Structure formats: structure tokens, C-alpha cells
Amino acid sequence: MSAPISSYVSQERLWHRHEQLALIGATATGGVNRQALSPEDVAACLQLVEWGQALGMQASRDAAGNVFLTLPGSDADAAPVLTGSHLDSQPTGGKYDGVYGVLAALEACEAIRAAGLTPRRRIEVVAWMNEEGSRFAPGMMGSAVFAGVRRLADIEAVQDAQGVRVGSALREAAEALSAIPLRPLGRDVFGYVEAHIEQGPLLERLGKTIGVVTGIQGKRTFQVQVQGEAAHAGTSTRAERRDALMAAVAMVGALNVRMHDELDVLKFTIGRFSVVPNAPSVVPSGVMFSIDLRHPESAVLLELGDAIEAICKANAGPCDVSVKELSKAMSLEFPADMRKRIRDSSNALGISHMDILSTAGHDARYVHEVCPSAMVFIPCHKGITHNEEESITAQDAAAGAKVLTEVLVGLALS
Ligand code: HGY
Ligand code: MN
Ligand code: MN
Question: How far apart are CA 246 and CA 284, in angstroms?
């Protein structure tokens, strides 16, 4: 019996590529800052394309800034198998969030090519644009436009903190990527498999190598704008002030009480909080803060998310407040047959696995809208992530790539 295709996965090559990508946007303290459509993000895409083209893969990109590498199949009319993740990072991101899924997908194609296999279906490796949503909120813009969940025109209007629109950042990135042919938005896809680090402690704690992801918990994000009036810190009386900061703090306090969950299942995060004019002797005229709300039960997410605006208005005092919902995605479950493929491949390779819910968001959320999708997790040390200390092992990285390879081959031969 011939060796499994996954036996051609090279742990050394996979690990070396992680180390090389980690140099692009490297921070002084061991992490990466490769925010969406930044020169660092584009450089990482170009490095991916160079590796793929050396393997004989065809590069392409779409108007949403997604970058693709295609390993040809024997039946050009057959819908492709899609795999990948994202290369953009949080400002103080780790080296593996997103990157692992892209490089494991590329490694699977390396193994398929080394084994001399031409699958029936072409396999497409994708690096999704702006999964993280830190520079431009909300995240997962590239996969949402690909899946038709969001319109390109809508995401192009989104601005970063410097007032740069996604549209102009896309045009700038397109210039740097101009040698790569443009392809139409969206595509008929046979199936999608995304490998990713767990971003939680369970696999490591329970001694399992592979997470068979059952689904992704629901997530709603909001932007709260509080409008007051600038005044002199020494002359304006409290009675006459319209202090946006004090109103925002009252809102945050009230929200924190309402979102408190003794079971610690609900995730309520205010990650961004900006004050205008942010000057020590000026009563703040404006505050903007973000809300990231997540829960596995859609009913809870709906009830609590719908309560936010009333809580903010009830604590606005003399200020005005507006609450804008940026994204709303309910919990999802991946198809059982796709999860079975991951379980069967893990068993065939003698690699331990367990079912696991993803409490982090991923591009698979939107691709799930257009084709049968699945995710393969590998352990992430102590679950440390969205943190420069994020770490994985080369052995787990290779094991996950082997399972991914077998799942992709199974889909591409079907
Ligand atoms: O926020 C998330 O869940 C993803 O890691 N960007
Ligand atoms: Mn990610
Ligand atoms: Mn992330």
C-alpha cells in the first residue's frame, strides 16, 4: 500500500515558513503587527505567492483583496476545494493566528505535488483580507464579500483611525499586487477547510492534538459614540458640563453589570476606547468605544445585544449617544459529514482528536454560507493569543497539516 499523501508533509519547511513570515511586521517584543492592507500585510501576501508559484500554483486576487493560489486539478469544470485563513494580525498579535491556516494549506499542496498526485478538483489556498478587524472594523471583510454576506461598496467606505478608507487601501494594495491576475468576486466552491490554532487552552490541557471544530459561537459587535461638549477644566461647573467621558464611564459600568454571567460563558469586551480632544484640561466632548459580545446561544446573544442601546441611553446624562451595530452573526454548526472527514483522517493517521466549539471567530463563518465547511484546530500554548506570547509546537503544526492534507485530498478526489 502506498504511503499516505500526508507523509510528504515537511515539518521543517512548514516551521521555517512560519519563522520567515514572522519577520514581516515583527514587533520588538516578539509578536507581529501586520494590520489589514498595510505594507506588511501586502508583503506577507507577496511572500505567500512566491512560495506558491515556485510550486507551480497559479496566483490570483479579487477586488476584496483576497489572494488565492491554485493547484490545478484534472477536471477544470469541477468546483474547487478551498482552504486557507488570514495573514493580517492584531496590533500586538502572535506569529500563528491565521498564518498557521494559510501555511498548513500551502504545505498540503506541497505534499500533494511531491506525491505526484493530480486531484480531480483543483485546490485553492486563500489568504482572506482583514480577518482581524483591528485597523478596519468589523473583521472578516474579505470572506464576507466573497460569500456575498457583505457588499464590496459597503466595506470600501469603512475608515481606519486616520480616516483612510478600505477602498483606497485596497487600491494601494492592488498596485503592489498588480502582477497577480484579478479574478471575479465569489466562486462556486465544493468545500472549505480552515486550519487554525485553537486560541484556547483545551487541546493542550486535555492532551489532544487535533480539534474537530463543531461550530463557531455567535458574535455581535457595536460602536458607541457619546457626544458631549468641550469645556474648560477649571471654569466649567459640574452642573453645566456635558462630559462625554463621565457619561461613557457610566454606560460601561451599567453594561458590565448587565453582561455579568456567573457561568462565565458570555464574553463581553470593550477593546477600544477613544476620548476627544483627549487633553488634560478639557472636559471631553466625545468618546467612542467598541463592544464585542459573544455567546454560543443565539437567543442570549439576541436578548443581550438588543439591550445595549437602552442601557447606553439610560446612562447618557446630559450627553447624546448613538449605538451602531457593526456585525451580527449567530452561532453556527459545521456539517457532520465534514467533521467526520477530519475525525476519520485523524484516526487513520493515529493522531488524537476531540470535538471542540470555536469561541473565536473565523472566516469559515462566512464561507459556511456558500459551501460545506469545516475547521481543524491545533493546540495553542495555554490558550495565549491576540498576544505576542502566542506559541505552538512544530510537531503539532505538522500533525495538523497532515490531517488537513488527508481531508483536502479526500474532497479533491471526490
Ligand atoms: O476576534 C476573533 O474572534 C478573531 O480572532 N479575529
Ligand atoms: Mn484568526
Ligand atoms: Mn485573531
Answer: 9
Please classify residue 86 by burial: count the beta carbons closer than 10 Å to its beta carbon, then call 0-12 exposed, 13-18 middle and 19+ buried: buried
Candidate from 217, 295, 366, 386 with most ligand 1 atoms within 8 A of CB, to mutate: 386
Beta bridge partners of 328: 220
Q: Express each pLDDT in 254-294 by its tens digit.
A: 999 999 999 999 999 999 999 999 999 999 999 999 999 99
Q: Dump pLDDT digits (tens) for 8-21.
A: 999 999 999 999 99
**Do β-strands 191-197 and 81-86 pair in parallel, antiparallel, or remain unpaired?**
parallel
What domains lie within the chain, and their CATH numbers? 5-217+331-413 (3.40.630.10), 218-329 (3.30.70.360)
Ligand 1 atom at shortest distance from the alpha carbon of 360: 3
* Residue with CA at minimum distance from ligand 1 atom 2: 361
DSSP string, 375-394: EEEE--GGG--SSTT----H
Ligand 1 near 98 CB (within 6 A) = no
CB of 390 shorter than 6 A to ligand 1: no
pLDDT at 61 over 80: yes
Report pLDDT for 1.
Answer: 63
Predicted confidence (pLDDT) per residue in 63-74, tens digit: 999 999 999 999
Q: Is the CB of 84 under 6 A from ligand 1?
A: no
What ligand 1 atom has the least distance to the C-alpha of 132? Answer: 6
Q: Are strands 210-216 and 353-358 parallel, antiparallel or unpaired?
A: parallel
